[in-house]
Amino acid sequence: MTVTGLLLAAGAGRRMGMPKALVRDDDGPWLSRSAQVLLDGGCPQVVVVLGAGADDAAPLLDGMAGVTAVRSADWAEGMGASLVAGLAAVVTEAALVHLVDLPDVPAAAVARVLASGGDAHDALARASYDGRPGHPVLIGRDHWDGVRAAAIGDRGAREYLATHITALVECGDLATGTDVDRR
User: Fold this and answer.
1) Which of 73, 85, 96, 155 is the most buried (most CB within 10 A)?
2) Do residues 149 and 93 lie in contact, with contact meaning Cβ atoms separated by under 8 Å?
């Protein structure tokens, strides 16, 4: 299956006090680490969607083979705008959507969701953590029009996934899958 990793990293991170694409911890920058998780998990290419702090974030991706950054002009409208911008840049049969603010999600979770995907163009699967749906989310091209229509504000693909049969891939043994909104 040909899948592009799609890393959403455009938000301002108001609760964090800075764009999440610029956050670093003891293990380094979240942005480059999250892109590497997608690569190591089996995505041969990764599209990173930047917005707030894009000029400072883009250099964090320099030298990463297989990683391309795009900018969401409408990033301030919410995650939905970033998702739409990212899908527009993907040319493969499916996208594996991940968020930059999930620093404990490892490559093994990406690989597990990818392995569950079935036929690429109609795939719809997502990681779950102790039964709680999370990211990454595998979305085949057959679903992109519906996802784009539902991607309004900060909802992203949530409503679309809630109304379509989506395979849940348990990853609670690998990570918490908790998004980090505050320092």
Assistant:
1) 96
2) no
Q: pTM for the full model? A: 0.95
Residue type, 73: A
Give tens-digit pLDDT for 132-173: 999 999 999 999 999 999 998 877 888 899 999 999 999 999
Q: Rounded to an integer, what distance in angstroms lies between the CA atom of residue 180 and that of residue 100?
A: 9
Domains in the chain, start-ordered, CATH in brackets?
A: 3-170 (3.90.550.10)
Integer Cα distance of 61 and 39 in angstroms:
13
